[in-house]
Protein: Histidinol dehydrogenase
Amino acid sequence: MPVFLDSTSATFEAEFAALLGAKREDCPDVDAVVSEIIADVRAMGDAALIELTARFDRLALSPATLAFSQDEIDRECARVPTAERAALERAAERIRAYHVRQMPEDVQWTDPEGATLGWRWTPVSAAGLYVPGGLASYPSSVLMNAIPAQVAGVERLVICAPTPDGKSNPLVLLAARLSGVDTVYRIGGAQAIAAMAYGTQTIRPVDKITGPGNAYVAAAKRRVFGKVGIDMIAGPSEILVIADRDNDPDWLALDLLSQAEHDESAQSILITDDAAFGRAVAAAVDRRLETLERRTIAGASWRDYGAVITVRDLTEAAELSNRVAPEHLELCVADADALAARITHAGAIFLGPWTPEAIGDYIGGPNHVLPTARSARFSSGLSVLDFMKRTTVARMTPEALKAIGPAAETLAISESLEAHGLSVRARLDRLNEESA
Amino acid sequence: MPVFLDSTSATFEAEFAALLGAKREDCPDVDAVVSEIIADVRAMGDAALIELTARFDRLALSPATLAFSQDEIDRECARVPTAERAALERAAERIRAYHVRQMPEDVQWTDPEGATLGWRWTPVSAAGLYVPGGLASYPSSVLMNAIPAQVAGVERLVICAPTPDGKSNPLVLLAARLSGVDTVYRIGGAQAIAAMAYGTQTIRPVDKITGPGNAYVAAAKRRVFGKVGIDMIAGPSEILVIADRDNDPDWLALDLLSQAEHDESAQSILITDDAAFGRAVAAAVDRRLETLERRTIAGASWRDYGAVITVRDLTEAAELSNRVAPEHLELCVADADALAARITHAGAIFLGPWTPEAIGDYIGGPNHVLPTARSARFSSGLSVLDFMKRTTVARMTPEALKAIGPAAETLAISESLEAHGLSVRARLDRLNEESA
Structure:
């Protein structure tokens, strides 16, 4: 049973705080193991990758077979059925069309003092994308990570995707091809992150690493952060649905379950201004759980972390949602735009009953790599900007330096940074000499 | 003596690689200590802060004196001399004018299928700025961190600044006041980071923490990353100057020294196409080092990490600079704009001989919090965007869902995510019934 909360109850605040604070992830402390793996890869390079892959993935590799060959990729792609290929191509096209609009523009202006100021955007040179193996090997995630990098203009784009027992996912390879990935390596875990960050004899280091992974991958990303850029440390998926009574309970039940089926630690929350409607949705979830393929996972998630919250009105719903800062937020209410205007923290908003969250996972266009675990309070989903960086630009004229240089000198002296001050003073002195 | 390299030498590639790989920072492994401090603050709150501040800063605090009172701030601000106040106000105004231009716009469009897509930007609710104590307590850094947050629209902005032995810097407090900071706490170190991330009885938690600090602060920021957002792990400062012979060697010497004086681990590099000019700059550095106040620090930095590199031409200079990915890059050449167009990785570019880097530290307008240690390959200086986040928005019409829903269903099934597929299918079935 999920929890049922009522915002008018005297115990509500405590119950809601408990829901917010629920620790949904067992973070095993794998840091020591990961630190050793990274040191191994830095010291031994390919040999470490080969040994670790044999141990963890039961797969014998050599430096020559670390990467899929183009022939292998061709063969794998050819195995993808036509309908899946068409769907993947359609998704790639729509994701690209959305992300192209994120391309930032360079800006430059001259201010009243005569200083020319601005900034320029450039892509990172090389990016590495981690794709988990096994059940969570999602071709859609390849598109969502690789296409923003491709749009940004990243020159070299590689994937590390473990193939436990040699099993690969043809759709992952096709998605890689559709999104301009140059090379796909058959390695996973912390060793893959280390290889992309530091390089080996065969694998050239990249500048930015993105993509989800297990606790080992997450710990490795945290460790290499600074040596390379990383996206975020992703936690289990979440959905919050705000709905009034004029909705089909079964639709919303499926939307809640579409997060719950990801992971036993996923969280699905319904907030409604109608208690009876809330019970109807919970009943619909129970009915769907009888037959759903992943009912064990989804059922555990709904039982342990699911919640149905009844509120006085939709304004209160928005306030509670902002405290959750959900990864995915569906607004199934009469005036979804008005409610959206009250939302200050959310990874992605889905407006109206015809926009199930699953559309955003695959084909809507926006990225499905989104901030989890309340991090929408301070971070954004993946975008083209994650694969670019901004260089600021400044040019002083002699007149501009005359106008603002003395203040810089004053501040430098106040901070006891004499050379800073002198670098301005030497130039100002020249100007004074010239005008004398 | 700095190293003198010549790109035409047979040993150049190895020497340049050694320069790039030089480990300039002793990163003491303080992680265990930091982990304990964070645990203490989470368990004991204010009591831990008071105990740690007594131990490390030799300062007795109580919950009531953790923060400066408004009266105390008034008194401290009144101690700032007029010239410093005016310079700080001028700097704040120019930094604000630059950062206001970074405010992003919300975007929304409707695509040919009828899907409405876009994104919205919102500020983080609360941000915490760390300001180191002692020598590196820079009022300019307060402006550079706080003003972008203020421009972004952050509601609550706090500072943690240790005051060892009770000594505070009036300019830091004035800078805080000029940039809209609400509260300044007299605490530092890992305990300050923990307090801002997790909160205590007195200190409310924030969503984003920025600002430089020592190894303990850096380790704490890395640890709390995910619970809150952080800016970056800053390393020692760097400057790279590309100059032709038509420059005053003394000016460039001062520019090189203005980074070297920050820290014995700072790095200053000159790249020139004229070997004699390079030697002249090195000689000018030596002359200035005779009298510079911080000659011990600057001299050690220049001796241990300084470099003068002679290249065949300016194109080669740009290529080498891109491999360094310097924090600060001065282009003192006849056509600085043309050379800038070849730069792909740099934190900030200063164009022409009238733009000493120190202008950017204080008053130019661009941010002086910039990526160090080659991280300009993948990251940017601090900006308004660091205090905002983007929420993606999608709305499907029934027609749009009809057009793209089936592809989403196909992909969901291929990923064995049945509820995802059903959430789309249930709606498509309704549309088919209606049109039947």
